[in-house]
Amino acid sequence: MSSPTPTITINGVRRPFSPGQTILQVANAAGVEVPQYCYHDGLSVVASCRICLCEVWSPNPRTGALEPFMGGKLVPSCQQTASDGMVVHTDSPKAVANQKAVMEYLLINHPLDCPVCDQSGECFLQDYSYQYGRGVSRFQEEKVKQPKKDLGNHVLLYSDRCIMCTRCVRFTREVTGTGELMVMGRGNKEEIDVFPGIPINNELSGNVIDLCPVGALLDKDFLFQQRVWYLKETPSIDPITASGDNIWIHHNEGKIHRVKPRENPRVNKWWITDEVRYGWKFVHSADRLGAPARKQYGYPAQSDFPRAYEIAVAGLRRAVEDGGRVALLASPMIACEEAYLLAQVVREIDREAVLAVGPVPVKGSDRVYPPGASEDDPRAFKVHAEKAPNARGVRRVLEALAGPGQVLDFEAFLRAMGKGTGSSGVRAALVTGNYPSAWTTPELLGCLGGKFIVAIDTLAGPHVDAADISLPAATFAEKSGTFENARGMIQSFERALTAFEGARPEGQIAFDLLHLIACGGEYERAGATRPEVYDAADIRSRMAAEHETLGVFASAVGHPAPRPQARPDMRLVEI
Amino acid sequence: MNKSASQLGSRKAGKESSRGTPARDAPIGNGPRLARVRISVSRPRLSHGTLETRKKHRGARRVRLIPDARKARPTLGTAMSYTLKAGQPILTKRIPCWPFADPKGRHVVSYDEYVRSGGYEGLRKALSMKPDSVTEEVKKSVLRGRGGAGFPTGLKWTFLPKLTTDESGVEADPGARYLAINADESEPGTFKDRLLMDFDPHLVLEGIAICCYACRIRTAFIFIRGEYHHQAHVLETAIKEAYENGIFGGKGLLGGTATGRGGPFAVECHVHRGAGAYICGEETALLEALEGKRGWPRIKPPFPAIKGLFGRPTIINNVETVAHLPSIVEHGSEWFTRQGVASTFPNGMASYGTKLMGVSGHVNRPGCYECDLGIPLRTLVEEHCQGMRGGKKFKGAIAGGISMGILGPDQYEAEMDFDIGRKHNVLGLGTACPTVFDQDTDMVAVARNIARFFKHESCGQCTPCREGSGWLYQLLGRIEEGHGRTKDLDLTLEIATSMGSMPGTTICGLADGNNWAVRTIINKYRAEFEARVRPTFVPIRMTVGAMAKG
């Protein structure tokens, strides 16, 4: 008698499954822990680590009585598809004996260098050794010693730590299609290696480091930087490209130490490009702006926020009073909420302010991995040529305010600025940046001359020096918000770090300016009122309420999935 | 230290034993035609022995050199009490083998000679039948795979996807299907396929043609072991001859003969040389290697008959298995089942037919013999091989290839058929090429040497085999050197028992081979191992006086 939805019983609990799922997939989805090394959702199944073996009983199709499956052999749960009525034991004496044996085998040639290993603390070998291994080693023989190898720009291989799960080899063959990695040698002497003279330098090479369940493949960038148990992780979104890859920011004491992919089957699957992985460096750049500045005698001089705000509001107002227009150049690097607030600032001063989207960098053309795969292939990974995370989101927000077709692109903005000498031309502009590297172009610099410019940016540059007021902004890691990626998916990200020195998120700067405008432009009149505090979630609901076209910000934002709670090692004991 | 086991893994053992006699009788040097001969049949022949045994029998090595000594050779088969049930050799019909003929007369059988001596008649008969009736005939003959596992060949063929026929009885096109002939004979002590490929390649080719026709396969690959340079060359020459004479090629089998299926049936045949890995003899690793990949066994299911080479249905048969096909088709399955023996177990599968048995080790006349299945090991050694070398006592024998485990001193009477595994606590018959040990053999060294082989040949895919085989070797090495303790012996047994595809912990059977070989040796010669190890002292805390309880 079979129930309408097929079920299997894992360790005594019935679990429903969809046909085609393997036992391990059912267990993983149900949160039943089955040890696994070589299995990865995004790669083919090789069933070579042999630790996920379990004891399976299946009903005899004729009598319905339970019988040992495959003649009572242990069955690799990663390979065996589930069938209705199966009874699976991962904790039976036979399965446990195998787990113990495999752990022992894996450890006999594994060096005991956890104290200096970067993987230590997030190492499958450590975790499973603790849960499934035996306490002492019975191995008295000599260990196989293997070399350390430099495999590419980002990847180091400590061969002796390798457990030969071949996830990395399968990744280069199945996902990138570049096939740089291979298995060399045989038996316990075999090693992962690259072919002579062909290092692993593909765009996705960093993922093999994440895939490695042990400390064999290491990140040169993260080597000996930080013990992983000190790292805090914050979900975020790729701040460099239009792909909207989901990432974890791993940081400690106000410093980012690395970026890891966050699984999202609809966007980046399990992978990110090296560009995104190492693209956070500008957050800690020596060129970061740390304090507001105003132009004095033609040179920027350090100032403070109240003074800079007052000058900025006064300057913008004067431009309108003189019959000119105010423009906003909203960079595609800032969050949707911030673009919305900044646009409100300029529209508060000038109802018909010119709204424009900043330059959208494009590098090369879009690429799909593995080469030749179609974009719709569920396994394909797309690398976007567009190197800005939020060009669509900023445009969507500005268009909701100014009307469709009223938002200028960068070229049109330059033209509008260029003819701005007339009475109705642009006399003042709010320019935002937040690009990961210097972005000032001679054309931009040329059209800024003779106008009142408020620059809000993260990195120093010629246009910041040329601005009348410059305000230090916060990078993606120092604020929350939403980005809309190339496929129109709006995803939120969270704040990981406190802002650098005196920097403030663009959204906060906008709130401060709005507050000052409401007070008449002088802090003396502000009295006891305080500016609102920038909170992305609040602004999203306000945007959705105020503009029908921005309803998506209430309904269709992808939030980071809650991180499954780690099971504590210790039991609470009443003292 | 007795190194007699070191010959186990060495390829020389096999080489000498199959070619032994002619090579030994060849003239020495360029001088007068002198030849070394054995003076009397009872004298031990020292084809290969250890340093020590050689020293011991130095007297026996002294040979008299007489001009043109071949005349002094004793007549063949005079003392034979054992004859083949078929009356004459079947596989070695054209290959002179002891005890029916002097191997000195061996030569490569050319196409013309093969046809003259009744070759390709089986194929002709097969083509006149329907493919399914050929399969049926093979199924009825209960021909069991000669590669080691003994799986019924006819049954294996029926696992291929069924072909549909339209109203007029014409079969649907099966698409690409492949036949892979497993000629990767790398098991130490096994040299039976080599004999066929060395001297009678057309017998193999005829079998391939019959199998391809029966299974509607248009492409056959012979995957030959990398070290078989000469055999690959012989096969390639034979295939060339076969193409020239229209056996294979575009026109169809046998020059485009009309078949029972309707119209000619064309088959292409290729030789693919391995790169020298034991594991490529495992059928799915063989397919990987044929595809040009690293020889790593695949996970099953899907089985090769459903999804094999290049993702297409594939049949994998041993060289000796297909060499049986021509005679089965020609003489019928009933004739075949008259040879060999039925199973002694109720409802057990029979072991019909003859089998090539390559005997190596401490026997007087090592070599490849064709015998009916079911021949007792004693008969094989005492009569075919003319007894143990130096008249020593039989100590044990590896049943058929080292992965099958060992037959102990009390199992000299073991019958060499497919029931041997169940009867005598070994893995199975394997390739039926026994390696025989005499009383002087150090079984610890044998175990260590076997473990060394498996450690070296483990492909490294599954954790238990990759790490366990190395550990076993190190443990046994330590025990052999006398640095082991009793607990090491137990640990060795534990490791051996926990790995292999039979408990399910590995993908392929290589670890099983390691496990069975080491485990049976330790179990059957435990005393010898225990004599080598020092006892493990277990500290016992004793309480005396007032503290003692009870």
Quick recap:
Chain A is an alpha+beta fold. Helix content of chain A is 25%, strand content 19%.
Notes on the structure:
The complex is a heterodimer of chains A (575) and B (550). Chain A is α+β, with helices and mostly antiparallel strands. Chain A folds into three domains: 7-102, Ubiquitin-like (UB roll) (Roll); 113-122 and 141-284, Alpha-Beta Plaits, CATH 3.30.70; 293-360 and 390-558, Rossmann fold (3-Layer(aba) Sandwich). Helix content of chain A is 25%, strand content 19%. Chain A is built from 15 helices and 26 strands. In chain A, a hairpin with a 2-residue loop joins strand 13 and strand 14 (255-261). The model of chain A has no long low-confidence stretch (mean pLDDT 91). Chain B is α/β, with parallel strands linked by helices and 550 residues long. Among the domains of chain B are: 103-163 and 174-338, Rossmann fold (3-Layer(aba) Sandwich), CATH 3.40.50; 443-532, NADH-ubiquinone oxidoreductase 51kDa subunit, iron-sulphur binding domain (de novo design (two linked rop proteins)). Helices cover 37% and strands 11% of the residues of chain B. Chain B has 21 helices and 15 strands. In chain B, helix 5 (121-128) crosses helix 13, helix 9 crosses helix 13 and helix 20 packs across helix 21. The longest helix of chain B has 18 residues, at 463-480. Chain B is globular. Chain A binds chain B through residues 45-51, 53, 70, 73-76, 79, 97-98, 101-102, 105-106, 108-109, 138-139, 141-142, 144, 163-164, 182-183, 185-190, and chain B through 277, 294, 299, 455-464, 466-471, 474-475, 478, 491, 498-499, 501-507.
